[in-house]
Amino acid sequence: MSRKGKGGWRPPPGSVRPPEKAPAGFGNRPFADSLKDAKPARPKAQPAAPAPKPARRLPDPRGVVRGRPPATTPRPEQPEAPLASYSYEDRVAFQQAFGGVRPLAAKRTARRPVSLDARPARDPAASAAADQSARVQLQHLVAEAAHFDLERGEDGVSLLRRGAHRSHLRALRDGATHALPRLDLHGMTAREAADAVVSFIRTERRRGTRTVLIIHGKGLHSEDGRGVLADEVLDALRRRVGHQVLAATTAPARCGGQGAIVVRLGDH
């Protein structure tokens, strides 16, 4: 049962209030009815904006790239002053003594380029002759280091190295025989004879021979009656192979007498 008071009808507690009727003409909604079954349109996706290009860095006139801090070049370490460890009085004294000294300017001389092609070609024959001459001079120097005593008499000549015993001369006169190795110089010039003597002495010494015989001739056909080759033999024995010779003497009559020389070679 409804209650009705001063304010009109009121619904009982716990009841549902009926809906109020809309005024006439209010329910006519043509746009709302047409849009009732329509689906809402999705917004179109906007294209993504392109990424901005990085700004181009222009070289700075001062050598520094914009946007980047300038590179700092480390300064080289300054060497310590040479007088830094001295006292003030010493530095003042040094300045007063050497303050006006200046280094001298070094003179520079231009070096001339040396061309290897500019050197003259060496003649092989001239080189061989120069080498032979130097070798002969060296042999003379070596031979002159051994001094000899030369004696001449009616019986012939004798040559003895200084310091050697005279028994070598007696052994040469008594022991000379025809079986000794010999060199005959007949028909040779003085230079040929000297070279032959040097070669013969060296060869026999390498073989271990102790005594040799050199035949130079008596010089019967020479102008003064004296054999020219005899002096050449003695000179070659003293000056060119003196370090290999102990003694030499005129051969006994059975081995040629005045026309030959017996030579005693040194120890090996």
Write the layout of secondary structure elements.
Blueprint: E1 3-5, E2 8-10, H1 30-34, H2 88-98, H3 124-144, E3 148-153, E4 156-161, H4 167-175, E5 182-184, H5 190-207, E6 211-215, H6 228-239, E7 245-250, E8 260-265
Parallel strand pairs: 5-6
Antiparallel strand pairs: 1-2, 3-4, 4-7, 6-8, 7-8
Helix content: 25-40%
Number-wise, the strands total 8
Any idea of the CATH class of the domain at 146-265? Answer: Alpha Beta
Determine Rg (CA atoms, Å): 66 Å
Strand order of the main beta sheet, please? 3-4-7-8-6-5
Which percent range describes the beta-strand content?
5-15%
Secondary-structure element string: EEHHHEEHEHEHEE
Tell me about the largest β-sheet: 6 strands, mixed
CATH topology of the domain at 146-265: Ribosomal Protein S8, Chain: A, domain 1
Distance between the termini: 171 Å
Q: Let me know the average pLDDT.
A: 76
The computed structural class is: alpha+beta
Total helical elements: 6
CATH architecture of the domain at 146-265, by name, is 2-Layer Sandwich
Describe the structure.
The chain contains 6 helices and 8 strands, in the order ββαααββαβαβαββ. Strand 3 (about 150-155) and strand 4 (about 155-160) form a beta hairpin. The chain starts with a strand and ends with a strand. It has a domain at about 145-265: 2-Layer Sandwich (Ribosomal Protein S8, Chain: A, domain 1), CATH 3.30.1370.110. The protein is an alpha+beta fold. Helices cover about 30% and strands about 15% of the residues. The strands form 2 sheets. Strands 3-4-7-8-6-5 form a 6-stranded mixed β-sheet, sandwiched between helices. Strands 1-2 form a two-stranded antiparallel sheet.
